[in-house]
Amino acid sequence: MTNESQVEPVAPSPALLAALGTEHFALQSAASSTIGESGGRASIYLAAVSGGLVAIGFAGQAPGLLLAFASTVFPTLFALGWFTVVRLVDTSVVNAVALARIQRIRAYYASLDPSAAPFFPPDSLGSQGSLGVRYRRGSVLFTTATMVAVVNSVVGGSGAAMMLSAFTRIGVLGSVLAGVGFGLVALGASLRYQIRRFSPLLNRG
C-alpha cells in the first residue's frame, strides 16, 4: 500500500523575488515623491496668495490703482488655486495606488512562509488603508487639496464680491452674499471632483 505523495509548494524563483523587491522599492519612491510634490505645490500657492494680498494692501493706498490691481490678482490666484487642487488630487491618487500595490506585494511576502504572516498583516485600501488609516468619502475633507481648495474658495469669493461691488449696483451686502455663494460653490465643486477621482479606489476595498 503506497502513501499518497503530498505536493509541496513551488518556491518562488530568485528572479521573481528580485523583481518584487525592485517594484516594492519603486512604489515606495513614487509614494514618497507625491508627498514632496504636494507639499511643494501647496507652499507655492500659499506663498502666491500671501504675496498677492500684501501687494493688494499696498495698492489700497491708491484707490484708482486698487481696483485694477485686484481685478488682475484675484482671478490669477483663483486660477492658480484650481490648477494646484487638480494636481494635488492627482498626486493623492498616485500615492493611494502605489500603497495599494505595495499591499499586494506584502500579501505575497506573507504567503511565502507560514511564519511570515504576522510580519505582513493584510491591509485593505478601502477598509483600513495603509498602516491602519481608514479611507472613506469623508477623508477628502482632510487632504492637502482640500486645504488649498478652502483658501482658494475664499480668494475667489473675495474677488467676486469686490468685482460685484465695484461694477454693479447690488450694494455691499448683496456683493458679500454673492461672494460667499461663489466661494461655497467653488469649494463644493472641488470636493465633488476629489470624491469622483477617489471613488474607484475606495470601492475596491
Question: Could you give a quick summary of the protein structure above?
Answer:
The protein has 205 residues and is mainly α. Helices cover 74% and strands 0% of the residues.
Descriptive account of the structure:
The protein has one domain (14-202). The model has no long low-confidence stretch (mean pLDDT 84). The protein is built from four helices and no strands. It is mainly α. Helices cover 74% and strands 0% of the residues. The chain crosses the membrane at residues 42-59, 65-85, 140-164, 170-191. Keywords: Membrane, Transmembrane, Transmembrane helix.
Record the SSE blueprint.
Blueprint: H1 14-59, H2 63-111, H3 144-167, H4 171-202
Helix pairs in contact: 1-2, 1-3, 2-3, 2-4, 3-4
Q: Which residues sit in consecutive blocks of at least 5 with pLDDT less than 50?
A: none
Distance between the termini: 49 Å
Shape: elongated
DSSP strand content? under 5%
Order of SSEs: HHHH
Helix/strand/pairing category = mainly alpha
Identify the notable features of this structure and list them briefly:
single chain; 205 residues; mainly alpha; 4 helices
